[in-house]
Amino acid sequence: AENNAERTAPPRLVTAWSIFFGYIRRRALGYGVAIALIVGSSRAAVWIPGWIGRFTDQLSQRRLDMRQAAHYAWVLLAVAGLRVLSLWVGRLYINTHGRRLVYELRARLLAKWSTLTPSYYQRHSVGDLLSHALSDVEIIRQFGSMGLSQAINCLSLLASAFYVMAVHMDWRLMLAGLFPLFLIPIIMRTFGPKIKAQSIRYHESLG
């Protein structure tokens, strides 16, 4: 009975997003290291203003000699180098695998199209096929490469900045500075569908 149930079970729907998350799961260790590097770079970016503040405080109070100035210079150089290197390595890994993911998606899409009957192509225009092969796959690539790395970088940097502002600044100034961020989802919700519809009309005009 169990074997019959397995044979009669409907096939699992394979989408671009399921392929994307499956691709990440197969490379979870590499993505985890890349995310840790990007988060570390954001943390290093928050350290830099603090060291510059200590340097300017001692300079304004005339308590800074050449040895201390050299110490601050080396510390700032090390922190800045750590930020640039860790951010570059993390983004390089994610962006490289984003390109490989696109190759895998388009290869599987072409393999799927080669198994479809002529009636499928009679029901769908060339614009629909181009939209799948170009726009839809490109969206996955952008999300899986720069979108993912930028989201991690921005969220970690925002969390660090939020902590510094909440602890060392007036909370009202913090709210005034962060308020515009809450408008971004509303703007994307409003204009996102319109941009997608315009893209579909453009590809249909090519067909």
Describe the structure.
The protein is mainly α. 87% of the residues lie in helices and 0% in strands. It contains eight helices and no strands. The protein has helices at 2-8, 16-26, 28-60, 66-113, 118-123, 126-168, 171-178, 183-206. The two termini are 49 Å apart. The relative contact order is 0.10.
Short structural description:
The chain is mostly helical and 207 residues long. The protein is built from 8 helices and no strands.
**Approximate strand percentage:** under 5%
Shape: elongated
Count of individual helical segments:
8
Q: What integer is the average pLDDT? A: 78
Biggest beta-sheet profile: none
Radius of gyration in whole Å, from Cα?
A: 25 Å
Low-confidence stretches: none
Question: Helix coverage percent of residues?
Answer: over 70%
Number of strand segments = 0
H/E order of the elements?
A: HHHHHHHH
Class from helix and strand fractions = mainly alpha
First-to-last CA distance: 49 Å
State the main characteristics.
207 residues, mainly alpha, 8 helices, 0% strand, elongated
Give the helix/strand layout.
Elements: H1 2-8, H2 16-26, H3 28-60, H4 66-113, H5 118-123, H6 126-168, H7 171-178, H8 183-206
